Amino acid sequence: MNWEKLTEKKTQLDGYRPLPPDLVKNLEQWFIVELTYTSNAIEGNTLTRKETAVVVEKGLTVSGKSLVEHLEATNHASALQTVLKLADGKTKDLTEDAVLDIHETILKGIDDGNAGHYRTIPVRISGSMVILPNPVKVPDMMTRFTKDITGARDWHPVALAAEAHYQLVTIHPFVDGNGRTARLLMNLILMQNGYPPALIRKRDRLRYIKSLEQAQLGGSKEDYYRIVAAAVDRSFDVYLKALSSDGASAKPRRELLRIGQLAKRAGETNATLRFWTKEGLLEDLDTTDAGYQLYDPAMAERVQAIRRLQGERYTLKEIKGKLSE
After folding, report:
1. Strand, coil or helix: 258
2. What local confidence, expressed as pLDDT, does residue 248 receive?
3. C-alpha distance from residue 59 to each of 47, 67, 162, 273, 302 (Å)
4. What's the CA gap between 34 and 76, in Å, rounded?
5. What pTM was computed for the model?
6. Domain residue spans in the chain?
7. Between the CA of residue 11 and those of 91, 178, 179, 195, 219, what are the distances in Å?
8. Looking at 76, 156, 165, 172, which residue is catalytic?
9. 76 is catalytic
């Protein structure tokens, strides 16, 4: 995996430092809601983005939503505040207790008996063939895990953050809350190294889970790394767009094409574009309130490249590899 594109974007972002305080605060608030919404949605929470904002920013309840879903939102937002404080430190100083504290906040009021404690029972991931470690081994594995992460010196920061996430969910040290804790840990390491947090979108849920399982079953981590890299790249774009417009907007406003518009421009059907997006050949950047996928106009050129490579008899898997080169 080539991480240099992200290194270049970090250099570009560093050129703006120190960032305007008002812009930093605005973006921080936006990321708290967005990270809370996406991370919980991956785990099955049904609060929408707007409902998550109401719960986190206003402290209000949403009719028809369970107490647990409200607590998952407020707890995740609180855990992010902890992460933001720890982000001022160095990854080499990260402690096992910090991971436990993050987890405790995630499950506070939901499962206090297990919050901040390693599991003592065997667990399985629903629908997965992955065999998780025996609970007796978890404490020692977590001690080694922390030493490995804090002692890493030759890793690219994004690769290290992604690896920390992967290793934590593979150890699966908790009865519940492993994914949310792992994503928070990943984002903590990213921010400690001057990178923005990774936004793994709800629509990428199946690809993300499948990529983790593929690696856990002995396959390549390449798909997983690509998903994390794309998530960090999108966050860089949020910062850079906001800065280039003098902080006028915390969330960049782009001239994006709806899927139908892209299909018309590229001479393809909506169904084809949806399939290619699902397979990771195309990248949608956002969705309208009505649920329409939105694309960068440059995706029209990507569509042409896909058709050209198909004409050369490459498989979709081979095309995906070539497009990422």
Report:
1. strand
2. 41
3. 14, 13, 32, 39, 43
4. 11
5. 0.78
6. 4-244, 257-323
7. 20, 32, 30, 10, 33
8. 172
9. no
